[in-house]
Amino acid sequence: MEISAINLTKNFGAERGVTDLNFKFTKPGLVGYLGPNGAGKTTTLKLFSNLLFPTSGNAIVNGIDVRESPAKALSNISALVESPEPYPHQTASEFLEFVGRIRGMNPGDTKKRITELADELHLESLAKKTGKMSKGNKQRVMLAATFLPDSDILLLDEPTGGLDPAEAKDVRDVLKEMKKDKLIIMSSHLLYEVTDVADDIIFINGGKILLIDTVENVSSKFGGKNNTQGLEDTYIKLIREGQL
Questions:
Q1: Hey, which bits of 13-111 come out as E strands?
Q2: What are the residue boundaries of the structural domains of the chain, listed by start?
């Protein structure tokens, strides 16, 4: 498994979304993509999901350029970007089975996995139409849809947005298990969330990467044994002061 950015740049007219991004990850684990609102996190994930085309540079998945061969590059990726919602006229079960068919999953495997995810994510009744669900429940259904295929790479854009603390913890617990054999890129602006689940971290602001390192290295350098304090100190120095 591999995901890498090579001088990846996206301009929106005169404005730049992201500029000359360079990173490469090739093994299981969770990468926390951390920055303030508008830093370029979602733009990056859209470039890797083929939802945006780069102005220049390359988004590479398993050695394949996403722009040149999107179907092949994305065949082993699951992505949750921004805030999509399930089809309101379908029940949670119908929607998840529909996703399974789109992803070419065996119907029996799909139903088994739906049952597992319903338990892990504490989904509301699978028989309830998603249009009548709360925002948090809709988000958990979308997370279940993202986790449904056995993809090696997951792209998650602030996946706990709209969830209460207990629901968010359920998601983090699932991610802790999944990252043992999957590569997960998770954007967030929540420091405690990143310290809880991430192995590596990317700090981004103004569309530019400011730092790439392990959470352990950043935390020990700036916060001793307190991981959250270490990331917070680094975040403030980079985002607000522009220096370490």
A1: 15-25, 29-34, 56-61, 64-65, 77-80
A2: 86-150
Please list the helix, strand and coil fractions of the chain in percent, rounded to the nearest 5, in that order. Answer: 40, 25, 35
- 132 to each of 65, 124, 142, 145, how far by Cα in Å? 40, 11, 15, 18
CA 198, 204, 208, 214 dihedral sign is: negative
Among 66, 54, 59, 138, residue whose Cα is nearest residue 96: 138
Residues with Cβ < 8 Å from 71, sequence gap 6 or more? none
Give, rounded to a whole angstrom, the gap between the first and last alpha carbons of the chain: 32
Alpha-carbon span 146 to 49, nearest angstrom = 13
Which one, of 224, 221, 236, lies nearest residue 191 by Cα?
236
In terms of Cβ atoms closer than 10 Å to its own Cβ (0-12, 13-18, 19+), residue 75 is: middle
Residue 121: how many other CB atoms lie within 10 Å: 21
pLDDT digits (tens, 9 = 90+) for 66-116: 999 999 999 999 999 988 889 999 999 999 999 999 999 999 999 999 999
Closest to 67 (Cα-Cα) out of 82, 47, 81: 47
Helices and strands (H and E) in the chain: how many: 9, 10
How far is Cα 98 from Cα 122, in angstroms, rounded to an integer?
Answer: 20
- CB of 59 closer than 8 Å to CB of 65: yes
Q: Does the pTM of the predicted model rise above 0.85?
A: yes
**Rounded Cα gap, residues 170 and 119, in angstroms:** 10
